[in-house]
């Protein structure tokens, strides 16, 4: 199972690329140059955040990754539960994703995408037209809720629904 976080795999791929013939390296260099010229930024491969003595032993590193996965899954599970129970559900879900991102490249990509979308939503919420629309919708919702509460109090008085008798 390749999680994208094995340093040895990434290093061996880099070394094998360096051993290729000069013609292949020149073609790769020109492709990299054209990509850099087009504004695409090259990103370093995801590397595991495990301590060096753990990464040195494959079995220990796999155990470390399983542990990180289980801990991240527990935090995300607690966050999902907190969506309906009291507590900071979304914060816990993002924390679990950040725990996974320390070891797994796919989680790192998902976390980066999520951060970008949250930033875009925050910028959109600061737009004056969107703020005005949200204030109007909230006001209308409060007026409707007030009318419903007023109707209930007019019809039944201050009696809770579970104490109603057949009327």
Q: Your description of this structure?
A:
This protein has 167 residues and is an all-alpha fold. 74% of the residues lie in helices and 0% in strands. Helix 4 packs antiparallel against helix 5 and helix 5 packs antiparallel against helix 6. The longest helix has 29 residues. It is elongated and about 75 Å long.
Mean pLDDT across all residues, rounded? 76
Q: How many helix segments?
A: 7
Number of strands: 0
Strand proportion, as a percent range, falls in under 5%
- Rg is 27 Å
Quaternary organisation of the protein chains: single chain
Question: How far is the N terminus from the C terminus?
Answer: 67 Å
Secondary structural class:
mainly alpha
User: Spans with pLDDT under 50 lasting ≥5 residues?
Assistant: 9-39
Percent range of helical residues? over 70%
Give the overall silhouette: elongated
The major beta sheet can be summarized as:
none
Q: Brief description of this entry?
A:
The chain is built from seven helices and no strands. It is an all-alpha fold and 167 residues long.
């Amino acid at each position: 199972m390749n999680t994208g976080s094995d340093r040895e795999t990434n290093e061996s791929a880099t070394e094998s690329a360096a051993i290729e013939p000069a013609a292949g390296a020149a073609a790769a260099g020109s492709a990299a140059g054209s990509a850099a010229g087009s504004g695409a930024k090259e990103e370093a491969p995801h590397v595991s955040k495990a301590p060096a003595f753990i990464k040195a032993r494959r079995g220990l590193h796999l155990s470390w990754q399983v542990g990180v996965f289980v801990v991240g899954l527990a935090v995300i599970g607690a966050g999902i539960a907190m969506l309906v129970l009291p507590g900071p559900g979304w914060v816990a879900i993002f924390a679990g994703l950040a725990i996974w991102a320390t070891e797994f490249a796919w989680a790192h990509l998902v976390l980066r995408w999520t951060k970008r979308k949250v930033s875009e939503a925050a910028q959109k919420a600061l737009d004056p037209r969107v703020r005005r629309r949200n204030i109007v919708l909230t006001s209308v919702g409060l007026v409707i809720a007030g009318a419903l509460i007023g109707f209930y109090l007019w019809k039944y008085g201050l009696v809770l629904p579970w104490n109603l008798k057949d009327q």
